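Can anyone check this?
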Amino acid sequence: MDVESQSPFLQTLHSVDSASTVRLKVKSPCASRRCICLILVLIGIVSGVLVWVRYKYPEPPGPTPPGASTEFDSHLQDIGVRYSFIFIREGRRIEVVNIDGIRLRVLLDLSELDEGEPCSAVAASIRLSPDGRHALVPFSVGKVMGVNHKLLVLDVRNGLPTAVEIPNGDFKFDGGIGANTLCEWLSNECFVISLTPEPNKKTNTKQVFLRYNIDNMKAYKELDLGVQEPRFCPAKASALIYGGYQSDARKRIIRVISQEGIRAPTMQEKAKFDRFQRGDIQSPNGPVNVRVDTVVKHHEVLGPNPNWDCYDIYFDKRWVRRSDSEVANPPLWDEDIDLYIWYEEDTLNGFETYYADRDGRYRRWHKGKVIGKIPLTNKNECGVDLLPRTRYSDRR
């Protein structure tokens, strides 16, 4: 049916529909331009916000790769000439590692000890002697860790372990775990340990302290500290300061355990113990102010979960690193090597050790935790290399 044969009403509708189509076709380019302009404006706003956020909250610089800083690389090379380091991994393997994170050799794998039962290291209590030649290695025996402890002295020059004979009776070796326990060196040849009563044993004495010499670790001398529940203050390896109260006196007594025996403290040692009692002795913080901030990323209904947080490390207000692994303690300064050292604990991968200089340049070091450093004397009396640097078994 053509338009002329249609009724007037249908002719009117057809004319209106044709006009609308024309208007839509005419206005469509304008609408498209407006949409494009609106999108461009939104992109500009979002880009501006992102630039502002990046300026206001910059990313940390990240690890310093080899070759990026000649000064940093030169400093690490100097350390590598002077020291090697002892690490403990997975609670049972003790390794010698260089400053580049290369494992030189395995000193001891406690899983290979023939004790009749599974063994595992008590990593928190392993101590190097002052000259770095021996290490006290307390470890647990049995399926339940921390119940039955034994002790050996490890020669770091050849990896030879020697068992320490601990007397049986109402007291047992506590592994140096817990408050006011001891597993410490007094000198390069002498160390002292503490024993605590067996469970359900009633004794008048809460602790027993034994002193050993590495020349004969089957013989020991019991020490009478003269106080109850002594507190021990970190000191030089040649002296261990402690204080406490006698059962029949209210006056505090301060004494020093040395290689020669128990003696009265010097004025400097007494002042140091007083600062220790007040809590003034802090962990070494080094030449810059270092802090670790926790950044909460997620919240749980039952409370925060540290595995869901991240951790920011600052050197003098400079943001140095953000880590998704827990940084339990702030970086500690080692004045011998002029580096900060810290650990990051991942529930899946265990411990990772990092080091940084005072300017915040840092690198991942090695898996596990560093126990101490070994001065590189290179050759012994017979001209044999003590720590062969050619056995680069693997790079971690």
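Reply from J.R.: I decoded it. The two ends are 87 Å apart (CA to CA).
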